[in-house]
Design goal:
Number of domains: 4
CATH class of the largest domain: Alpha Beta
Strand order of the largest sheet: 7-8-6-9-10-11
Protein name: GTPase HflX
Largest sheet: 6 strands, mixed
Subcellular location: Cytoplasm
Structural class: alpha/beta
Shape: elongated
Strand content: 15-25%
Helix content: 25-40%
CATH superfamily of the largest domain: P-loop containing nucleotide triphosphate hydrolases
Number of strands: 14
InterPro entries: G_HFLX_dom, GTP-bd, GTP-bd_M, GTPase_HflX, GTPase_HflX_N, GTPase_HflX_N_sf, HflX_C, P-loop_NTPase
CATH architecture of the largest domain: 3-Layer(aba) Sandwich
Subunit structure: Monomer. Associates with the 50S ribosomal subunit.
Radius of gyration: 27 Å
Organism: Rhizobium loti (Mesorhizobium loti)
Number of helices: 14
Distance between the termini: 83 Å
């Protein structure tokens, strides 16, 4: 039984292609979302069931993924699969039905929002008479289009080639590409047909060597940052949770932030000075997603090391999404794969974004439910309106530099060069200028700032 939806024929303002028109529009695609009735089991020690995402959420995400690379989803369907077929995943009746839908809609591409084996992909292409991409292949295509830096391009190409290894059967020769190849829709890996496994493996080895060079370069940059010990704060979260919007809000940067899955791919780092003067390095990372291909996790390990090495991790959640709990579980699973314990409240802050999209009743209920949880109360913010941002900055600064302390210092005339530093790194409560030319300043400063003040005063006195 399938629940079908008619998709909007316009993608990002571009008219869909219709037979007989001269201008070629976006690639016409049929999107199929199989929903398996068997609930997947968790992969942790408890083997507890994973949270099941709703069919509507999976459908919307699949359409969003398709539109992220300017596909025109001319027909979409959610299909319940009681007995997955080894040959085609879907039953023969459904395959015939979709073959007719592909023909009627003049579709060139079929997206199956589920991992497909090479055999299933090949058989579906034969039956549907169209190119078939599974969820992994589609995400790879998106990443291929989003990569901008050399590092990102190398990582995507490596993931493409690893995905290709089992899919070297020539298909649709008029396209002059391999099945599952890097760049059916374009991308960094589209260079030549890799028809020989030995050649493919040689290219994979070469890319791994290049990425090892990238990793060593990252290690050097990280070592330089540690010489000037600025703590690193990494923002992670499900794709479209608002990470880039929050990054821009905290840094004043202009990173691309759109209501689009995987709007940004390459990591961005910026130096930020918190309200009481504590400097940090803020890192915006690639968005996570359910069933993120293992090829991508492995290929992007160099980038994700920024998360592993971070002193503090902000787990940003879109609290307005009905499936926010399932999304959070997916993010926590990937963090666990990277060796980051999402339950470590000293290192991980849970931040609920987009509270401006909640009505007052839902907002109060969610915040009340969160109080006393095992992870501690979350910080509710809106990266768009700025609500809660000051509270978030305060928590980050407390974690990085310690609680605010009351401090009174007397600055001798020869030490007046420190006064400006005090104003920039603390909250001045009062200042009294003394008759001998000194100044007595009362302020609130972080523990880290107090230690720095004491150190600077000692150096002045010893000098």
């Amino acid at each position: 039984m399938a629940r079908e939806k008619d998709a909007d024929a316009t993608v990002r303002g571009k008219p869909a292609h219709h037979p007989g028109t001269e201008a070629k529009g976006p690639t016409r695609a049929v999107v199929i979302v199989p929903v398996l009735t068997r609930q997947p089991r968790g992969d942790d020690d408890t083997n507890r069931p994973r949270l099941t995402r709703s069919a509507d959420a999976r459908h919307d995400e699949a359409v969003g993924l398709a539109r992220a690379i300017n596909l025109d989803p001319v027909h979409t369907a959610v299909v319940t699969v009681n007995d997955p077929r080894p040959a085609t995943l879907l039953g023969s009746g459904k395959v015939e039905e979709f073959a007719q839908i592909v023909k009627d809609n003049d579709a060139e591409l079929v997206i199956v929002d589920h991992p497909l084996t090479p055999v299933q992909q090949r058989n579906l292409e034969k039956e549907l008479h169209a190119k078939v991409l599974d969820r992994t292949g589609l995400i790879l295509e998106i990443f291929g289009e989003r990569a901008r830096t050399k590092e990102g391009t190398l990582q995507v190409e490596l993931a493409h080639l690893n995905y290709q290894k089992g899919r070297l059967v020539r298909s649709w020769t008029h396209l002059e590409r391999q099945r599952g190849g890097a760049g059916f829709l374009g991308g960094p890996g589209e260079t030549q047909i890799e028809s020989d496994r030995r050649q493919l493996q040689e290219k994979i080895i070469k890319l791994k060597h290049e990425l090892e060079t990238v990793r060593r370069t990252r290690d050097l940059h990280r070592a330089k940052r540690k010489k000037v010990p600025f703590p690193v704060v990494a923002i992670v979260g499900y794709t479209n949770a608002g990470k880039s919007t929050l990054f821009n809000r905290l840094t004043g940067a202009d990173v691309l932030a759109q209501d689009m899955l995987f709007a940004t791919l390459d990591p961005t780092l910026r130096r930020v000075r918190l309200p009481h003067g504590t400097p940090i390095i803020l890192s915006d990372t690639v968005g996570f997603i359910s069933d993120l291909p293992t090829h991508l996790i492995a290929a992007f390990r160099a980038t994700l090391e920024e998360v592993v090495e971070a002193d503090l991790v902000i787990h940003l959640r879109d609290i307005s999404d009905p499936d926010t709990a399932a999304q959070a579980e997916d993010v926590e699973r990937i963090l666990a794969d990277l060796g980051v314990d999402a339950g470590d409240t000293k290192r991980v802050i849970e931040v609920w974004n987009k509270v401006d999209l909640l009505d007052e009743g839902n907002r109060s209920r969610l915040l009340a439910d969160a109080v006393g949880g095992s992870k501690g109360p979350p910080i509710a913010i809106s990266a768009v309106t700025g609500e809660g941002i000051d509270a978030l900055k305060a928590v980050i600064e407390t974690r990085m530099a310690g609680e605010l302390e009351d401090l009174t210092v007397t600055i001798e005339p020869a030490q007046f060069g420190l006064v400006d530093w005090l104003y920039r790194n603390g909250d001045i409560v009062s200042r009294a200028d003394n008759e001998d030319g000194s100044a007595t300043i009362s302020l609130k400063a972080t523990q880290s700032a107090r230690e720095e003040i004491e150190s600077r005063l000692r150096r002045k006195n010893n000098g």
